[in-house]
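=== Per-residue structure ===
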Amino acid sequence: MSKTSVPAENLEGAVDSAFTAIAQAQTAFTPKLTLREVGAISSIATGIAKVSGLPDVGFEELVEFPGGVFGIAFNVDREEIGVVLLDDYSRLQAGDEVRRTGRVMDVAVGGELLGRVIDPLGRPLDGNGPVATSSRLPIERPAAPIMDRAPVVVPLQTGLKVIDALIPVGRGQRELILGDRQTGKTAIAIDTILNQRGQNVLCVYCAIGQRASGVAKAIAALRSKGAMDYTTVVVTEGNDPPGLAYIAPYAATSIAEHFTQAGRDVLIIYDDLTQHARAYRELSLLLRRPPGREAFPGDIFYIHSRLLERATHLRAQLGGGSLTALPIIETEAQDISAYIPTNLISITDGQIYLSPSLFELGVLPAVDVGKSVSRVGGKAQRAAFRTVAGDLKLAYAQFQELESFARFGARLDDDTRKIIEHGKRIRACLKQHESAPMPVPAQIAVLMALTQRLFDSVALEQMTAAEQALREAAVTIPPPLCARLETTAAFSDEDHKTILELARLTLAPFQTPPKVAAEVGREQ
């Protein structure tokens, strides 16, 4: 016998002990019988599947297909159910097994999502590894009851003069952004996110069915300005299944609501709900639901209203958090009376309309002040803004009306000419470069100079330089005054004089003395 060989009696003992352990395990083990509903795919089409054999499945319950593909039960009929697929379904085929999960669709939530780019299922798209969160929330949740809500009293500063002064938005409001394609809707949303830096506001940007290149550009802008530190991006691309586009805004809202319930102020951007409505229309038609106006199903209004009703400002006893929603929709040929635009206008608390004609003229952001309105934000606007911009919207609207008549070559009296020249300065001052939000003190200084007509004697070609000089001079406003401008404190006469004197000294080199003298002569 060699040194490495095992004695036969030792090997026999080891085998005996192994069989003894197996016998004991068999004796101790008691099999448990569990009921499990299993169905099968009857047919499969673009983005949906018909499933039979799940008699107790519930509406919007999550079901699992082979390969880890999930779907949501949408049509619950007597013989079969219609399932909206949420993932790549190219390998599924009729006859495949389908299992119930017993739960509804949920999404990962938590502070770990800040700075991340994910899809509605919580899978990372930024290449920074898996998202490790300990909490999950259903994507469909009831909106806060009326008694849990508080009035909208704090403004959400966008950093855009035309919006903060004329169409203010409050924290907890729903303000619609609409306009034709390529008019700058996403740019306004991105600038609003950039302006929340240092404002203690968290942001969620939900891109629904957008081009990958456009989403990449938006994310690059957020990264370059440091905005990703307080932003979560939820993305579905144009080639994703329509079911994924459908659940995207609901998943993003649950992510935002987690922060709101923790007492934080949150801004959520839906870019855009037109694609969301089209995805829902596609699913509904494939599931043989009856079409209505423009082939949309009859409950298209309900799916958007139950989404946007979740925007709120909670009472102080519930943390005092807020969720501000800025949904974006696309109009066709400036038709704001189409089905989806009118639905969203009636659901939201106001709209910011972007005009293609203003965009073509180079007036950016191309906000049409006449068709834009905020039904809540005015109550939350800072006292300083109300003081310096109270009559600005009326003056601008007068100018737009008179300008259209002046194009016919009619002879204008001096008063009309003054209104038109003043309106041209207003339009020039309301222009603003992309990704350059303006702080509150600089906005107040520019708007005060406008209302006091200090820009009226500045040549139009000098307006950009004059406004830039005033913006730079606003940095010298005393810190205590800047702090008061950021609060609800009343705008005192002393504060008014301080800023007005700064504006006069800054704009004096740009003013044209002959025009000033002529204006004085006419007034006398």
